[in-house]
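Hi! If you just cloned this repository, the fastest way to understand the data is to look at a raw example. We've pasted two of them here, unedited. The first protein comes first, obviously.
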Amino acid sequence: MKRATFGGGCFWCVEAAMEQLEGVESVTSGYAGGHTENPTYREVCSGRTGHAEVVQIEYDPNEIAYEDLLEVFFTIHDPTTLNREGPDVGSQYRSAIYAHDDDQLETAEAFAAALEDEGLYEGIVTEIEPLETFYEAEEKHQNYFEKNPNDAYCSMHAAPKVEKVREKFTTTAGSETTSP
C-alpha cells in the first residue's frame, strides 16, 4: 500500500469523492502544512494554525496509480482559486499536494505543469511540497458524507463531486466511462 495526501477545499468533499475509486483502500480526513502540533478542527478553521484540511489516501498502486489520483484530484476541485473552494474561504481550504517522497513530488509538479501546458487550467495555485506531518481529524469528520448524506452542505457540495467521479472514473460503484 502507498499513501497520497491532498487538500482541495473541505475535506468532507475530497474524502467522499476519493472513496469512490477502485484501488483506494481508505481515506482519512486530517490536517497538514501548518505549524501547530495536534490541531483541532476549530483551531484549523480559525486560519491561525497554517494547516490545510486534507485527506490521506491509502491506495494499492497495482490497482490505481498516483497519476490517476492526481487526475481525479484536479477534476474535483478548482486548482486556480487561492485559498478557496466553493463557499469555503481561507488558507485552510487551499489547494495542496503533500508528497510522501521525491517521486510523488516530481510527479505532482510535472502533472500540474502539463495541465497548464495543455491549457486545461490557467494559473494553478496548488501548493506542492513534501509532507512533514499529517494529523488525523476528529472522529466526527471521518466518513462525514457517508454518515450525513442529507446534510445540506454535503448535498450541495460533496454529492456533485461524488457524482462527477462516478460518471468519469472507474469506481467501486461499478461505473466507468474513463479509467484513470
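Ok, and the second one:
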Amino acid sequence: MAWFLNLYRCARCKKVWTDEWSCTCDDDCPHCGARHMSPFTSEDLTELVAQEGDEFVAIRSPDSAEHDPDYRELGRFPTRAKAEDFLKSTDFV
C-alpha cells in the first residue's frame, strides 16, 4: 500500500503539522480544529532505504498495510546506491 508523509498548513491559524497516512487526504488542524485542510506537499514513503550497521535495507509498505506502513524487508545491500537501484528495477504489483 502506498504510504505518505503529508505536510499541512492551516488556512485559519497558519500552523504547520505533518501526518503519515496511506493517501494524501485532508486532515483537521490539531491546533485550532479547522476542518478539511489539504496537504500542501506529500512525500512518498512507500519504498525506503534504511541503514542498519554497515548494510542498507530496502523496505516497502505491503498492500496489506492499513493503519501503519508495516514495512517489509526486501533485501540487504552493501551500499545505499545498490539498494536504491534495486527498488528502481523491481516492479511491485
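That's it. A detail worth noticing about the second one: Residues 4-43 form one domain.
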